[in-house]
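Q: I have 206 residues here and want to know how they pack in 3D. Can you give me a structure?
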Amino acid sequence: MTAYDPVKRGLDLLVGGVALLVSLPAQVVIAVLVRARLGPGVLFRQQRPGKDERVFELVKFRTMLEPDSARGLTTDAERMTPLGSFLRSASLDELPTLWNVVRGDMSLVGPRPLLVCYLDRYTPEQRRRHEVRPGITGLAQVSGRNAISWEAKFAKDVEYVERRSPALDLQIIWATVAQVVRRRDINAEGEATMPEFLGSSEASRA
């Protein structure tokens, strides 16, 4: 723990709370659109590991149709909708996640929370990403987002854990805004989002 951590939590609560309130009208509009285009179930809810690998429920707007093999909806690319693609590219699907920030599950800036099943696939060094609260955006996201490898992402996550500071957080937030405006590095090459992390070669030897 650093001296910045309690200050960071206070800023998360203040800024996250204000952003949640200010964004409520936009969230209502998005919720209506998601309900109309994707059907019942406006929010996507999933268990994710947070700080110290404690599991919490992440909430976002739905961007994909439900899996349906009869309709050929099995892969992420097949299930992704035009509305969902727009929401993801503009990061508007993340607006409900501000509630996770206010609750203390997440921070505005930190390593992105990934799937629970990945926990036993990390190397000991990669697991250090869970030493801090996960974030809506992070150093890995502004260093290539989904266009870089998992190993490169995790290296950036650990770098953030070691270097976290007010200046670095401001730099990441500013870079995130620029990235969203430019709609860059949204998907991995040939993927609708990012391929599953199956583990690094080092993980099998750890």
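Q: Anything worth noting?
A: The radius of gyration is 17 Å. Confidence is low (pLDDT under 50) at residues 188-192.
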